[in-house]
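Hey,
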Amino acid sequence: MTGKIGFFTNHEKQRAWLQLAKKVGDVGLDHIPCAQAPDLFFPEVDPKLGHPLSYMRTAKKACKTCPILLDCAAYAIEFNEDEGIWGGMSPGERKQMRRRRNA
Protein backbone atom coordinates (compact mmCIF):
# COMPACT_ATOMS: atom_id res chain seq x y z
CA MET A 1 0.00 0.00 0.00
CA THR A 2 1.32 3.45 -0.84
CA GLY A 3 0.95 6.23 1.68
CA LYS A 4 0.02 9.76 0.77
CA ILE A 5 2.42 12.69 1.02
CA GLY A 6 0.29 15.77 0.64
CA PHE A 7 -1.70 15.09 -2.51
CA PHE A 8 0.85 12.62 -3.86
CA THR A 9 1.63 8.99 -3.23
CA ASN A 10 5.05 7.90 -2.06
CA HIS A 11 5.45 6.28 -5.48
CA GLU A 12 4.91 9.60 -7.30
CA LYS A 13 7.41 11.38 -5.09
CA GLN A 14 9.91 8.57 -5.47
CA ARG A 15 9.58 8.66 -9.26
CA ALA A 16 10.08 12.44 -9.31
CA TRP A 17 13.08 12.11 -6.97
CA LEU A 18 14.66 9.49 -9.23
CA GLN A 19 14.16 11.76 -12.25
CA LEU A 20 15.87 14.59 -10.39
CA ALA A 21 18.70 12.23 -9.34
CA LYS A 22 19.14 11.17 -12.97
CA LYS A 23 19.60 14.80 -13.97
CA VAL A 24 22.21 15.16 -11.23
CA GLY A 25 23.96 12.10 -12.62
CA ASP A 26 23.79 13.47 -16.15
CA VAL A 27 25.56 16.71 -15.22
CA GLY A 28 27.81 15.17 -12.56
CA LEU A 29 28.00 15.77 -8.82
CA ASP A 30 30.94 18.13 -9.32
CA HIS A 31 28.53 20.64 -10.88
CA ILE A 32 25.84 20.43 -8.19
CA PRO A 33 26.56 22.92 -5.38
CA CYS A 34 24.45 21.17 -2.72
CA ALA A 35 26.34 17.94 -3.32
CA GLN A 36 29.59 19.75 -2.52
CA ALA A 37 28.40 21.37 0.74
CA PRO A 38 25.16 19.78 1.99
CA ASP A 39 25.48 21.37 5.44
CA LEU A 40 25.24 24.78 3.79
CA PHE A 41 21.90 23.91 2.19
CA PHE A 42 20.54 21.93 5.14
CA PRO A 43 22.09 23.52 8.23
CA GLU A 44 21.26 22.38 11.71
CA VAL A 45 18.88 25.02 12.98
CA ASP A 46 18.12 26.17 16.48
CA PRO A 47 14.30 26.05 16.63
CA LYS A 48 14.27 29.28 18.63
CA LEU A 49 16.43 31.20 16.16
CA GLY A 50 15.28 29.81 12.81
CA HIS A 51 17.45 29.54 9.71
CA PRO A 52 20.65 31.58 9.82
CA LEU A 53 20.38 34.23 7.11
CA SER A 54 24.05 34.05 6.17
CA TYR A 55 23.71 30.35 5.31
CA MET A 56 20.60 30.99 3.26
CA ARG A 57 22.19 33.83 1.29
CA THR A 58 25.31 31.79 0.54
CA ALA A 59 23.32 28.70 -0.44
CA LYS A 60 20.98 30.71 -2.68
CA LYS A 61 23.95 32.33 -4.40
CA ALA A 62 25.48 28.90 -5.02
CA CYS A 63 22.16 27.64 -6.42
CA LYS A 64 22.35 30.24 -9.18
CA THR A 65 25.26 28.28 -10.68
CA CYS A 66 23.42 24.94 -10.60
CA PRO A 67 22.46 23.42 -13.96
CA ILE A 68 19.32 21.80 -12.49
CA LEU A 69 18.11 24.84 -10.54
CA LEU A 70 14.64 24.93 -12.12
CA ASP A 71 14.12 21.17 -11.83
CA CYS A 72 15.14 21.28 -8.18
CA ALA A 73 12.80 24.18 -7.42
CA ALA A 74 9.90 22.51 -9.22
CA TYR A 75 10.44 19.27 -7.30
CA ALA A 76 10.63 21.04 -3.93
CA ILE A 77 7.49 23.07 -4.58
CA GLU A 78 5.52 20.17 -6.00
CA PHE A 79 6.35 17.78 -3.17
CA ASN A 80 6.28 20.28 -0.30
CA GLU A 81 9.90 20.02 0.79
CA ASP A 82 9.85 22.17 3.89
CA GLU A 83 13.48 22.04 4.99
CA GLY A 84 16.63 23.48 3.51
CA ILE A 85 17.38 25.48 0.39
CA TRP A 86 16.01 23.90 -2.79
CA GLY A 87 16.15 25.53 -6.22
CA GLY A 88 17.49 28.75 -4.76
CA MET A 89 14.51 29.20 -2.45
CA SER A 90 14.05 29.09 1.29
CA PRO A 91 11.24 27.09 2.89
CA GLY A 92 9.21 30.30 3.29
CA GLU A 93 9.66 31.28 -0.35
CA ARG A 94 8.57 27.84 -1.52
CA LYS A 95 5.52 28.06 0.74
CA GLN A 96 4.61 31.41 -0.87
CA MET A 97 5.02 29.88 -4.34
CA ARG A 98 2.69 27.02 -3.41
CA ARG A 99 0.12 29.47 -2.09
CA ARG A 100 0.22 31.52 -5.29
CA ARG A 101 0.03 28.37 -7.40
CA ASN A 102 -2.97 27.09 -5.45
CA ALA A 103 -4.81 30.44 -5.34
